[in-house]
Structures are given as C-alpha cells and as structure tokens.
Amino acid sequence: MGQRVGIIGVGQTHHAAHRLDASGNEIIAEAVSRALDDAQLAMDDIDAIVIGNMDHFENINYVDMWATDGLGSCMKPVFKVTTGGTTGTTVGACAYYHAASGVFDVVLAVGWEKNSESDTQAAIATCANPVLERDPFAGAIGPLATEYSMYMKAYGATEEDAALVAIRDRNNALNNPYAHNRMKVTVEDVMNSPMLSYPVKFLDMCPRSDGACAVIFAGESKAKKLCDRPAWVHYSIVRHDYTHFGDLEWQWMPTLERASAQAYKKCGISNPLKEFDVAELYLPCSTTGVKWMDSLWFCDKGGAPKLIRSGATNMDGILPINPSGGVIATNPIGATALIRVGEAAWQIMGRAGDRQVPRVKKALATGFGGCSWTDLFVLGADLP
Amino acid sequence: MADWKDQVEEIVFPGKISVPYFWTVGSTLSKWYVQMRDDGEIWGNRCPECGKVYVPPKIKCIDCYQDMNDWVKLPGTGTVETYTVVRYHEPTLHPKKPPFVYGVIKMDGADTGMVHFIDGVKPDKVKVGMRVEAVMAKERSGNILDIKHFRPIP
Questions:
Q1: Domain span at residue A218?
Q2: Do B62 and A130 count as a contact with CB atoms less than 8 A apart?
Q3: Looking at the structure, do residues A140 and A274 belong to the same domain, yes or no?
Q4: A69 and B59: CB-CB below 8 Å?
C-alpha cells in the first residue's frame, strides 16, 4: 500500500515582524491559497491536512478548530502537530507519512506563527523545565551562545566566521521577495551590532516573524499527473534527544549527526558537500552555520571555519546554503522549518525565482527545535 | 495519608507566567468591527459560489474555500435557536454577573447563528424561537461587545 511521494506545490506568505493586516487565520489562508495556486489544485483535491504552530506564541489553542475556514479543513481529516522549532518539518514529515502510507493521496502541510502576538522569548522560556532549568538557562540565545563558545575554544573558530554566515544568509535574503529582513550587511556591520550573549550579536541572531507556509505532498501517480517536475521525497527522518540542557554534548550536534548520517546512508550519499546541489538549513543563529557543518558531514570535525571562509556555501560555491536567506532573515517559528522544505522543493521544481540555484537535482532541508532536535528531508528531482 | 506518600516530601513550586498578548483582528473581522463601531450595523459576508451568508464573517467559505468579499448588510434581528441561563460566578471569564443568558441567535438574512447575550428580559422568560434584535452599545470601540446584547422584539 505504501507509495513514493513528491512535493507538487508550495506557498508562503510575505513574512514580516508584524503582519497587522492579517489575522493568524488569514495568514494561513494566504499560504494555503498560494500553495493551491502553485499546484494548480482546488481545496476539493486535498485529502488530508496536517497543521502546526506553538500555541503559547499566540495564546489561542486549537488552530485546527478556529482556523477551519482559512485552512479549508471543514469535513477533512486534520491533524495538529507541535514540536517547537521543528514544528514545520514535523508537519512536513507527518504529511509525507500520510501520503507515503497510501491511506491518503494528496496531503496539505501547513506551518504558521504570529510571533508578533506575544513576547517570543517569554513564550519560549515556557518549554524549559520550570523546577530545574527555567530560571538559569531559559530562552533561545543563551544555549546557542554557549555551544559556540565551546566550539570556538576547541577548534579556533571565531566570531568573524559566524559573521561570514550572517552576511551570506542576510544578503541572500535580498533575492527573496517573501523574506522578513532584507538588508545588505557586511562583516563589520555584524561585528559592530549589539552583543546579545557572548559571542552572539544582534545580526547573528534570527528575528521572530509573522508568517505561514504550505506544502502539498502527493503519492507517486497523482504527483506525476499533477506536476511536471515534482520534488520527490527521498528520505525524511526525525531525531530527538535531551532530558536536561546539561545532558547535551555541546561540542557536537548529535541529533543532526545521527539524522544526516542515516539519511545519507539510505540515499547512497557519500560526499554530501558535492552531491547536494543546494541546502536550506534551519540555522537559528549564524554560529550554528559554522559549528553544525561538522555535524552535517560537510567537513571533518573542526573543519567548518575553513569551509565557511572558502566561500563553498555561498551562492556561487559548491553547495549554496540558504539561498532564501534562511532563518536569520525570516522566522515565523511554526512555519520556519516548513519553509526550508518548501524552498528546497522549489529549488528542485525550478520555481525559486531570483534565488534559484542552477540545475538542482538533490536538495537537503533541515529543521531544528525542541531542544537540539533534528528533522531532515532529502529531496530529489529523480524518483527515489 | 496513604502509605505510598510516606517517603515523599511534597514540594510544589508556585509559578506565574506573565506574557502579554496582542491579537491581530485581520482584514475580514476588522471590516466587520468597523461597521459595528462606526455605523452600529451588523454585516455578513456571502460566498460567491454557494451563496451562503456568514455572520460573524468568514475568511473563506468553509464549504467552497472561496474568498469572501461580497458583504451583506443584515437587519440586526434574529431568532433564538438555543440558550442557557448562567448561574455560576466566573469573573475572569464572564463580563456579566449571574444570572445572565447567552445563546445562539440565527440572524435574519444569514445562514449561520452567532453567539451573544440575551438581555432586557427576565431569564426565565427567554424561549427558543423568540424573536430578538441587537442592542448596540452607546460607546463602541470595535469589538464583540459593541453589540451590548440581543433583546426581545416587542
């Protein structure tokens, strides 16, 4: 009954710090309508829907109830998924599983967030264990700063290495009409921006955005019928760890290492830096764009600074990373990881506009969330 | 105390999370609220495909997934479809003191019911099928309480 699955349509909102023109329900409708247009489908063609966000960012529970009209889910099977920052990729993975099982044929995945509706840091703090770690270690910035400090000490990586990632992603965002922050920046701009938590500075860190993304998955025969160049799902994998922050291996990123190693093995990829044509990675902070390159097996342990300095991950490099501008340009949290999948799919489908990388046959997309969890997709132009 | 609790010193941390929230009303509902606030009128919106009229308005038709740009002015009258008399006190949830009545009012000119207070009548005199009309608040600021309540049509 199982079947191969392709992505046949992607839609996203124009993202911004405050989308005060549109409610949560309306940004969902905006992304869904655009995905249907991209796939040239109508809502009647959708067999099931998976949606996700983080309720404490909006303080409205059950989006699967109150957004029924914007989502188009009335009298359809609809499933709500929430896994923190990974929500978008988990929504994508669930939609993929739905279609891959053969139980459903055309499945709509939707991730969204209205981060303007609350204090994002205060809301994120609610995921830290309140009787142990919330007071001393909660929030998104501190843990990311801490892990890069360790990597700098171990391998001689620098703040400037992170700044190179920041300018790569931020300047790439200039080519993406949907991106929230579109500003030309230099290494000096990044280095001179206010220190948030050493070594992380303001321009190293992601914003929080309002936005939504929708991705349509379809079983093989439907996908072939409905789309001339689907982005086939070659592999989808989820890896969780963490019981307490102190349990994490800060020098590595174990879930990313394990997830990517497994995915490469299953997909027969031996040199990911060469074999992927593009990567859309959930890098919440420029520091992770250095440190996590090791964990994606793009270089040897400690080799990331050299890799980044070489320009290999720039638009004209061997593996362009984040042509969209990535997470430090745009971060509607429940949508952020699904945007990675959608952007990677568009790269394969040849629909990435001014940020299109030429001749993309294989693409990598990741999600990061919970605490140091990894979701990962390998997409390809050819059937898996 | 049960013996399975003997070995535990029960510690419970009190906590209070104070997070401000600001909910975007959005283009569809803000139109509705502005009509109520500025003109004291209740409008619905109609699906261009199936013709169904919704009040409160919908972002998309729940049956047809069509855009809902076709606005219809409603007379502000309707029929009580169902109701309850609230007799418990929940000050953090209810803007009124008990006893009070709320229910579903099927609005004339619309295909859906809307929930609101029914007042201007003794609670035990409210009946299903009762004809009611909207009473607008004198001071209106663009929210659901711009409709003060529904009262029986004399």
A1: 5-119+210-226
A2: no
A3: yes
A4: yes
Q: What is the pLDDT of residues A155-177, one digit of tens each?
A: 999 999 999 999 999 999 999 99
CB contact under 8 A, A42 and B28: no
With respect to residue B146, please indicate whether it lies within any of the assigned structural domains: yes
Shared domain for A180 and A58, answered yes or no, is no
Q: How many folded domains does chain A comprise?
A: 2
Is A136 found in the same domain as A82? no
Are A33 and A172 in the same domain? no
Model pLDDT, residue B3 = 77
Compute the distance between CA of residue B102 and CA of residue B94 in angstroms, rounded to an integer: 11
**What confidence category does residue B1 fall into, taking pLDDT thresholds of 50, 70 and 90?**
low
**B58 at the A interface (CB within 8 A)?**
yes
Determine whether the interchain pair B62/A59 forms a contact, defined as Cβ–Cβ distance below 8 Å. Answer: no
Asked whether residue A37 falls in the same domain as residue A168, the answer is no
Clarify whether residues A214 and A203 are in a common domain.
Answer: no
What does pTM read for this prediction? Answer: 0.95
- Interchain pair B21, A117: CB under 8 A: yes
What CATH number should be reported for the domain holding residue A160?
A: 3.40.47.10
Tell whether A114 lies on the interface with B, counting CB pairs under 8 A: yes
Number of domains present in the structure of chain B? 1
Segment B8-65, tens digit of pLDDT: 888 998 888 778 899 999 999 999 999 999 999 999 999 999 999 999 999 999 999 9
pLDDT digits (tens, 9 = 90+) for A330-378: 999 999 999 999 999 999 999 999 999 999 999 999 999 877 899 999 9
d(CA B81, CA B103): 7
Task: State the pLDDT at residue A291.
Answer: 97
Å between B46 CA and nearest CA of chain A: 13
Report whether the peptide linkage leading into residue B56 is cis, meaning its omega lies within 30 degrees of zero: yes
In this prediction, residues A289-315 reach a mean pLDDT of 97
CA distances from B61 to A79, A333, B65, B69 (A): 20, 27, 5, 11
pLDDT in tens, A255-277: 999 999 999 999 999 999 999 99
Cβ distance A22 to B27 less than 8 Å, yes or no, reads yes
In a domain, B119, yes or no: yes
- The answer to whether B28 contacts chain A (CB < 8 Å) is yes
Domain around B106: 24-152
pLDDT at B2: 63
Same domain? For A248 and A312 the reply is yes
For an interface test with A, the pick among B9, B59, B63 (most A C-beta atoms closer than 10 Å) comes out as B59
State whether B26 and A22 contact (CB < 8 Å). Answer: yes
**Same domain, yes or no: A201 and A214:** no
Comparing alpha-carbon positions, the chain A residue that sits nearest to B62 is A69
Q: How far is A69 from chain B (nearest CA, A)?
A: 5
A25·B59 Cβ contact <8 A:
yes
Give B154 to chain A, closest Cα distance, Å: 35
Give the one of B20, B62, B63 whose C-beta lies nearest to A118's C-beta: B20
In a domain, B48, yes or no: yes
**Would residue B6 count as lying in a domain?**
no
